[in-house]
Amino acid sequence: MMDPYGLAHTTQTDWQKVVYPLVNNIYTAEQVRAFEEDLFIKEGDDLRAMMEAAKQSVEILNKDFSTSEFIILCGPGNNGGDGYFIGIGLGELKKCVKFIDVLSHVKKSPLCEHAFKVAQDLDFINAKTLKGISSKTIIVDAIFGIGGRIDLGSELEEILSDCNRFESKIAIDVPTGIDSNTGEISQACFNADKTITFIGYKLGQRINEGKNYCGKLILKDLGFSMDKNVSPTVKELSFEDIKSNIPKRKENSHKGDHGKLLIIAGDEGFGGAGIMSSESGLKTGAGLVRLLTRKSHVSASLTRNPEVMVSGADNAQDIEANLEWPDAVVAGPGMFENFWSEQILYKLLFSVADKGTPTLLDAGALRLLCHKAFSKINLGSETVLTPHPGEAAEMLKVSVKDIQKNRIESAKALQKKYGCIIILKGNGTIICNKNDIYLCSSGGPELAVAGSGDILSGIIGSLIAQGLTPFDAAKTGVVIHSLAGEDFANDVGKIGLAAGELIPYIRKFLN
Fold first, then answer.
1. Would you say the pTM of this structure is higher than 0.85?
2. What are the helix and strand counts (H, E) for the chain?
């Protein structure tokens, strides 16, 4: 029987199924491309790898879809070659397959040209357009893959807009219209239900809008074990990675064993931020929680959470006696650029620098750090800073667009400038210290509400007070917070979360 891929049968590479560690390693497009090129130069195995990628994709498509009709969009590069071989494999299974040669005027790569000619020799049907094709047909995007970009031009954007009317959309490696590194998307982007990716996970698949347009992500390593040979750009966290960090309780423990957390928050008009942070700290396990806030907010805190020890402060001297007490401090929610916030934060930072008290700074405290008066204060490597993109932009004196375009480098730049543990919040939260960098891609738009960050600060502060290192507390708090958001979205929906509603979901994960 003729080899359907146009190759003589030679000894197969030993394609091994890799068991991945709990932490997923994530790479830039350049890292994956360099690894592939180095590998193929050494082994001369690029065509065999393409065939294996097609074979494993065919297995997934055949398993997932009983339908017999597929249309495959093939670009001029190696991703297009994958697409042609996938179609050939589906044809072997008696599926009805049509190809569209996207950007046919562009010279094809040698591998794509080979695959294209094999498909022609086997008399596959070439379509010119998606017009008139039933939306129930399975559409497969094999246009660019890892070479994806967002400056697509009107011809491709029109095709992609038409693609998204199909009921079942599968992308090969990376959906067209996604930047493989930044997760930015073009005006029109292939909105995949499932993405079959090869060799290693790409950064753009896990952050920004790229995460949402990949659908379910399936990695096929093809036996090349990139994880064993290349250091990742970032490591992706799941609940399994952090659950061993959750504090355990002895049967004969008392409240003093579970840490003392001090929250300094809530300038005039922003009392809710301190109340939410302190409630979050209390209900995520801290043994004792004290809130220092404006005097006008004391009665509201006592009404909401009588278990929180709340004090009102008019000036920095009013907080001094409390700074000897805590095992951990959270400061900044509900602070802003006025005299009360500035003097309180200034007093606090000198105190914790002297005493070595682990501290988390959020919200208004981060914006105050940008002021010259705070520039000579040594924050310490165990201090946790939790900026959202707007705060990060102010701290680095760049635009929000610059932050979002390269969230990994932005987090690294913040760490280098301030010398602290950084949590860069957003769609694909980044957690880093000087040596390690992690990604949490859980959570979604349900968390984009007022007070969500205040809840997160309380969780992390509570975990530090209970004995976790600040970096472990940062990783653990971010993951639990994001998964609580997902649980809310699954139960209720993505719209209408009030931040305090996260707390019951958070306690579920802690227990």
1. yes
2. 18, 19
